[in-house]
Amino acid sequence: MSRVCFQLQVREERIAEYTERHASVWPQMLEAIKDSGRRNYSLFLRNDGLLIGYYEVDDDAAAQRALDADPRTADWEAQMSEFFVSLAGRPDQNAQQLTEVFNLEDQLAGVTH
């Protein structure tokens, strides 16, 4: 299992609308995300537009391909791309991924008593 964290920058003038859109994501988009293999998916938004996303997945590349090929995702991703600063293409494919430097469970599993 992989833990994936990413960041994007929402345009400040569109933060309220972005938040509103994510209060009720289209059911077909929710199903497409689930069907791709992503789980425990969350988005966190700071009031200056910094967006941090997190999800868990068994094969991130396969999940990415599944979302790219799924006809349920294209319209949503096209609409969402308008909300971001300096983004070329689909947000789900062009977000900057962050490197994990600490995980409590991983370290606890390595501790011997």
Give an overview of the whole structure.
The protein has a single domain (2-110), classed as 2-Layer Sandwich (Alpha-Beta Plaits). The chain is built from six helices and four strands, in the order E-H-H-E-E-H-H-H-E-H. A four-stranded antiparallel β-sheet has the order 2-3-1-4, with no helix packed on it. Helix content is 42%, strand content 23%. Strand 2 (39-45) and strand 3 (50-57) form a beta hairpin. With 113 residues, the protein is an alpha+beta fold. The protein has helices at residues 15-23, 27-36, 60-69, 74-81, 91-94, 104-110, and strands spanning 2-9, 39-45, 50-57, 96-98. The protein is globular. Helix 2 (27-36) runs antiparallel to helix 3. The model has no long low-confidence stretch (mean pLDDT 92).
Summarize the biggest pleated sheet: 4 strands, antiparallel
What is the topology, as strand order, of the major beta sheet? 2-3-1-4
Radius of gyration: 15 Å
CATH architecture: 2-Layer Sandwich
Total strand segments? 4
Mean pLDDT: 92
Question: In the residues, how many domains can be counted?
Answer: 1
Write down the secondary-structure element order.
EHHEEHHHEH
| CATH class placement | Alpha Beta
Low-pLDDT stretches: none
Number of helices: 6
What structural category characterises the helix and strand content?
A: alpha+beta
CATH topology: Alpha-Beta Plaits
Provide the helix percentage. Answer: 40-55%
Tell the overall outline: globular
State the end-to-end CA separation: 26 Å
Strand content: 15-25%
Protein name: L-rhamnose mutarotase
